[in-house]
Write a structure and sequence with these properties.
Bound molecules: hypoxanthine
Structural class: alpha/beta
Radius of gyration: 18 Å
Number of helices: 8
Number of strands: 9
Order of helices and strands: HEEEEHHEEHHEHEHEH
CATH superfamily: Nucleoside phosphorylase domain
Distance between the termini: 42 Å
Strand content: 15-25%
């Protein structure tokens, strides 16, 4: 790297701050595959394309629009990533997680992270929403994570702990929010893999044996970066397809299938997020 990570974070944050008229927000929302429409519900929105923000990578994936949106969502000031970048696109981990570092440096206190995922748990069906209660960071454990390399103590400790990556109080708010909206909320462990291939049946059976309920190609390293800096996290997976535990279980998954399921998931997620944001507001007043 030619400049330190801190410099890059500061340059990106300064740009976003200047472009968004120094608006204050404490909630940061990452919108996953096909779930970007939540950003359309933001009032007084200021949209900043990733291509303009210093050091940001650009999303190359269908279903990810690639802009940073600052606005009011259900009456709460938020910033949103409308589309994320993934490790499989070829970006280094520091860049995949740069937006999280920027959000932290701008004062974020809550991160709501969403993704599309394959359902490993046989109780789950397509269009279910799963509250992420824990994760298995498959590539992170093996060394592909944003904390590899020199540690900057200004960002977090050398050896952060991941005892509770997903905040217990936020999880309770999500459960209450789902109940209040008559949304069935599944719960489980999200396995983060690199992709971009959909997993083989044997790989999926391995993930199931390890305790995974859903599998996807994002999120876990964003959460590692967030927890490095003690940013509290709430996470949801939209189950877009059934992960095939044997080749004869049905047709193979496709990105189109993932995108088709998203419109059924988005309204449920929106209802839960709306309620959670009200809880957030209450907790701060
Ligand atoms: N596997 C990995 N990532 C995914 C899947 C899947 O089945 N569905 C949506 N994202």
């Amino acid at each position: 790297m030619t400049s330190s990570l801190i410099n890059r974070i500061n340059e990106a944050s300064d740009y976003v701050r200047a472009k968004s008229a120094d608006r204050k927000w404490r909630v940061f929302i990452v919108l996953g595959s096909g779930l970007g429409d939540l950003a359309k519900q933001a009032q007084n929105a200021i949209k900043i394309p990733y291509s303009e923000i210093p050091h940001f990578a650009q999303s190359t994936v269908a279903g990810h629009s690639g802009q940073f949106v600052v606005g009011d969502l259900f009456g709460v000031p938020v910033a949103m990533m409308q589309g994320r970048v993934h490790f499989y696109e070829g970006h280094p981990m520091w860049q995949v997680t740069l937006p999280i570092r920027v959000a932290q440096s701008m004062g974020a206190e809550m991160m709501i992270v969403t993704n599309a995922a394959g359902g490993i748990n046989r109780q789950f069906t397509v269009a279910d929403v799963m509250l992420i209660t824990d994760h298995i960071n498959f590539l992170g454990l093996a060394g592909n994570n944003p904390l590899i390399g020199p540690n900057d103590d200004a960002l977090g400790p050398r050896f952060p702990e991941m005892t509770q990556p997903y905040d217990a109080e936020f999880c309770n708010w999500a459960r209450q929010a789902a109940k209040a909206n008559n949304v069935t909320l599944r719960e489980g462990v999200y396995a983060g893999v690199a992709g971009p291939f959909f997993e083989s049946p044997a790989e999926l059976r391995m993930l199931r044996a390890m305790g995974a309920d859903a599998v996807g190609m994002s999120t876990v390293n964003e959460v590692v970066a967030a927890r490095h800096g003690k940013l509290r996290v709430l996470g949801f997976s939209g189950i877009t397809n059934v992960a095939r535990l044997s080749a004869d279980e049905g047709p193979p998954p496709t990105h189109e299938e993932v995108m088709e399921a998203s419109p059924k998931i988005a309204p449920k997620l929106s209802a839960i997020v709306q309620e959670v944001l009200q809880q957030w507001k209450l907790s701060r007043s």
